[in-house]
Specification:
heterodimer, A: alpha/beta, B: mainly alpha
């Protein structure tokens, strides 16, 4: 269970998160939607403990991650994984070394066992035999899938995805959606997906939450969100140029 | 008028705060690096890889510059010494100048320009492409993984490169004196080794130990503070080289004064 309670975050004079609260149940796939630059990725980095809130609490399995030691935080991170928007693969390492990074660093598994796990993770994202390639030799879609393979390699209980389908072709996007769905169904992985791809959101979400002006303004199942009367949510999910979001002077950032 | 004074004071104040903040960040990074050196896991391979980049790959440029410095120094000294008919002292001056001052400083400046800039660009790119954040999410401490190997490699390799540069510089001076100015080879070598004391070599090398640390810390700090995409990486790299140069020269001045006045 992940509980986010009333968190605030500022960058210089910009207030990004303004009292955001959100709960994510075990095994749930929660999709967070919102306009670009309104703090979705910042929220994910808070959940991973990369950023610390000005105030508020992020409680994972009963522990406030802002208050635990770095050792405990790393222990927690071993059970979690994050897929970054651009992949964030390490340029100087091969695909195989990227995918097996945590295992090479911290596990006591033999090199052969790690290689097997790497191969298994890559085959889960339909990429085989590319272990020796460097990230610079991959296409954008492949990078994204390798990043997902890196996340899967540690068998995480929680996976955070930052725009997993942005910048990939529709077929790859659909296979990523399918993968997220199958991880949810088969392994009961808790997933938090940040996206503004509504097709993807409807396909994978148990619950959708909309982030606007640093707060969650609406939350519900895909059907509930599609039937919403909230003018801001309505404008966003239908991609309308006219509406309260574009009319407001007070912008997200 | 009053507005201008306030604006000026504001600018001066902002600069002072920036420099204090910078020194604070540098010191914090230094102590964190010292702490993480002793925390497992220890991956020797990572340090050796950096040592290879800093040391072995810098050999051609260090050789070239050190050789020319030796040649230039011998020629410039000869210009004065011939007037006094004291050409024999060229060997002393070349050896002492190179070992005590030029070898350490020139080598450090070359390494700062070549490798300090490279680590800032590398870490800066990692920062703007979220690779450093990714390291954290994979439970790897960025200081342990990125800064410690570079710090150890710089601290070890800059003195090693300096010793090599000293030797090449002296060879440069030797070739000019023996083959152009007609000084006997044995006499040149005797004068060189007689003039050099252990203290001259060790003070020069001690300085390079500090210079190596400065290059590593500035390079890594600038890289890890990079913001704003490709333009940010460019700015950070420039700042890294300029800051390293200034700090190396300032530290050299301080240590030379200390060795001259306190440990003569």
């Amino acid at each position: 269970m992940i509980e986010i309670k009333n968190i605030y975050k500022n960058f210089n004079s910009s207030k990004i998160l303004k009292g955001l609260s959100l709960n994510i149940a075990d095994g749930e796939t929660k999709v967070i939607i919102g306009r670009s630059g309104c703090g979705k990725s910042v929220l994910l980095k808070h959940i991973m403990g990369v950023l610390r809130p000005e105030s508020g609490e992020i409680i994972i399995d009963g522990k406030d991650i802002a208050k635990i030691s770095s050792k405990e935080l790393n222990k927690l991170r071993m059970r979690m994984a994050m897929v970054f928007q651009g992949g964030a693969l390490f340029d100087s390492l091969t695909v195989g070394e990227n995918v097996g990074f945590t295992l090479y660093e911290y596990s006591k598994l033999s090199a052969r066992e790690i290689e097997h796990r790497v191969e298994e993770s890559l085959s889960n994202v339909e990429l085989c035999g590319i272990q020796k390639l460097l990230p610079s030799e991959l296409s954008g879609g492949m990078k994204k899938r390798v990043a997902i393979a890196r996340a899967l390699c540690v068998n995480p209980e929680i996976i955070l995805y930052d725009e997993p389908t942005t910048g990939v072709d529709p077929i790859t996007a659909d296979s990523i959606n399918e993968l997220i769905r199958s991880l949810h169904d088969k392994l009961k992985v808790t997933s938090i997906v940040v996206t503004h791809d509504m097709k993807s959101a409807y396909r994978i979400a148990d619950k959708i939450a909309m982030l606007y002006h640093g707060k969650i303004i609406a939350e519900g199942s895909a059907e509930e969100i599609q039937r919403t009367n909230h003018p801001v949510v309505y404008q966003f999910i239908n991609g309308l140029a006219q509406g309260p979001i574009t009319e407001t002077i007070d912008k997200c950032i | 008028m009053a507005k201008n004074i306030i604006s000026f004071a504001h600018k001066v104040g902002a600069h002072i705060v920036y420099y204090i903040d910078y020194v604070g960040a540098l010191t914090r990074l230094f102590f964190k690096t010292l702490y993480w050196i002793f925390i497992p896991p220890f991956k020797r391979q990572r340090i050796l890889r950096q040592a290879f980049i800093i040391g072995v790959e810098s050999l051609p440029i260090v050789s070239l510059v050190a050789f020319f410095i030796g040649v230039i120094l011998a020629l410039q000294t000869a210009y004065q010494m011939q007037k006094l008919s004291s050409e024999i002292y060229i060997a002393n001056i070349v050896a002492l100048s190179i070992v005590r001052e030029l070898g350490p400083v020139i080598t450090s400046l070359i390494v700062a320009g070549r490798c300090g800039a490279a680590i800032t660009a590398e870490l800066g790119t990692m920062k703007v492409t979220e690779q450093i954040d990714a390291l954290e999410t994979l439970a790897a401490n960025p200081i342990k993984y990125l800064v410690v190997p570079r710090f150890l490699a710089f601290t070890f390799m800059v003195p090693v490169l300096t010793m090599y540069a000293n030797l090449v510089g002296i060879v440069g001076g030797y070739l000019i004196c023996v083959y152009r100015l007609g000084i006997r080879s044995s006499m040149y070598l005797n004068m060189t080794f007689d003039s050099l004391q252990i203290k001259d070599v060790t003070t020069g090398l001690f300085k390079t130990l500090i210079f190596g640390m400065i290059i590593a810390m500035v390079g890594c700090l600038e890289g890890m503070r990079t913001e704003g995409g490709a333009e940010g990486v460019g700015k950070a790299t420039t700042l890294s080289v300029v800051t390293s140069f200034i700090l190396i020269i300032a530290a050299d001045c301080v240590f030379t004064a200390i060795f001259y006045f306190i440990f003569p």
